[in-house]
Amino acid sequence: MSTPLMKQYSQMKSKYPDTVLLFRLGDFYETFEEDARTASRVLGITLTKRGNGGASDTPLAGFPYHALETYMPKLLLAGLKVAVCEQMEDPKFAKGLVKREVTEVLTPGAAFSDSILRGNRNNYLLSVALPTPICTRHDLVGMAFADVTTGEFRAAEVPLGELSRHAGSLSPAEILVQHRDRETLRPLLSGAATGVETVLEDWIYTFDHAHEILLEHFRTKTLKGFGMAEMTPGIVAAGSLLHYLRENQKSNLPHMRKISALNVSGFMTLDGSTKRNLEIVRSSTGGEDGTLFSVLDRTATPMGARLMKRWVNQPLRTIGPILERLDAVGDLIAGSGLLADTGGILSGIGDLERLVARISTNRATPRETASLAGMLEASDALRSLLGARGGDRLRTTASAIPGLSGLAASIRETLDDDPPPTLASGSVIRKGVDAALDELRAIAHNGKEWIANLQRTERERTGISSLKVGFNTVFGYYIEITNTHRDRVPQDYIRKQTLTNAERYVTPGLKEFEEKILNAEERILGLETSLFNDLRASIAARSDEIQQGASAIAAIDCLASYAVVATTLRYVRPEMDEGTEIVIRGGRHPVIETLLPPGESYTPNDTLLDGDTGQVQIITGPNMSGKSSFLRQTGLIVLLAQIGSYVPAQSAKIGIVDAIFTRVGASDNIASGESTFLVEMHEAANIVNTATGRSLILLDEVGRGTSTFDGLSIAWALTEYIHDRIGAKTLFATHYHELNQMAALLPRVRNLKVDVREYGNKVIFLHTVTPGSADHSYGIQVGRMAGLPEEVTTRAAEILRNLESSDLIVHGEDAPGQARTERRVSPDDQLTLFAGRDEKLRSMIAAADPDSTTPIEALRLLAELKKYVSST
Question: Using one digit for the tens of pLDDT, what is the confidence trace for 442-459?
Answer without folding.
Answer: 877 777 788 888 999 999
